[in-house]
Design goal:
The complex is a heterodimer of chains A (107) and B (120). With 107 residues, chain A is mainly beta. Chain A is 0% helix and 49% strand. In chain B, strands 2, 4, 5, 6, 9, 10 and 11 form a seven-stranded mixed β-sheet that branches. In chain B, strands 1-3-8-7 form a four-stranded antiparallel β-sheet, with no helix packed on it. The chains are: A mainly beta (107), B mainly beta (120). The A-B interface holds A 1, 34, 36, 38, 43-46, 49, 55, 85, 87, 89, 91, 93-101 and B 35, 37, 44-47, 50, 59-62, 95, 104-108, 110-113.
Chain lengths: 107, 120
């Protein structure tokens, strides 16, 4: 099975900073990659699918890129409401594995 | 609006069985794959399995194959997750989620989850 590895596992950044989270697949998955945000005590929320397509209603400061095995989620200007854990998920074929998550905090 | 409501969780003893339900509303149930995802306390998300939009196929994460079974009743807009031989490491919040598209896909709407605690 394909493994999904996220890095870093946690980060602390200041409001307004540019934040980058990476997700690496152990084999190529084309662009079948989604990103989710889970705020503390809340349900996961879809941010991005097809590696770079922003889900409706998601702020434009979120962006995704990559193809094959290496993917990136970028928050262009970190806001206090972005404090959350972020997960990638591959969906080219079952099992639809999630990455381990990246916890984002405000410095 | 799209709504997914899970139920059936609770405190159960190891070795017993449990059936979780997910009732969908606000969309055409037969047009979407449906997923179960779980999250152990303080841990990350784990995809559990999916049932095809027409209930013709199911797929599971290898660690639950043989113990977990997903079924669907399209006439009731309801999906079920049957869990046998419950173990302590099955303790988690179980979410149902909708998967758009014609093949296994990401999840665009999630329920609030139902907590399963396996403890003697």
């Amino acid at each position: 099975d394909i493994q999904m590895t996220q890095s870093p596992s946690s980060l602390s950044a200041s409001v307004g900073d540019r934040v980058t989270i990476t997700c690496r697949a152990s084999q190529g998955i084309s662009n079948y990659l989604a990103w989710y945000q889970q705020k503390p005590g809340s349900v996961p929320k879809l941010l991005i699918y097809a590696a770079s397509t922003l889900q409706s209603g998601v702020p434009s400061r979120f962006g995704g890129s990559g193809s094959g095995t290496d993917f990136t989620l970028t928050i262009s200007s970190l806001q206090p409401e972005d404090v959350a854990t972020y997960y990638c998920q591959k969906y080219n074929s079952a099992p639809l594995t999630f990455g381990g998550g990246t916890k984002v905090e405000i410095k | 609006q799209v709504q997914l409501v899970e139920s059936g969780g609770g405190v159960v003893q190891p070795g017993t069985s449990l059936r979780l339900s997910c009732v969908a509303s606000g969309f055409t149930f037969t047009g979407y794959h449906m997923h179960w995802v779980r999250q152990a306390p303080g841990k990350g998300l784990e995809w559990v399995g999916v049932i095809w939009y027409d209930t013709s196929n199911t797929y599971y994460v290898h660690s639950v194959e043989g113990r977990f079974s997903i079924t669907g009743v399209n006439s009731k807009n309801t999906m079920y997750l049957q869990i046998k031989s419950l173990r302590a490491d099955d303790t988690a919040v179980y979410y149902c989620a909708r998967g758009p598209g014609s093949s296994p896909s990401f999840s665009d709407y999630w329920g609030q989850g139902t907590l399963v605690t396996v403890s003697s």
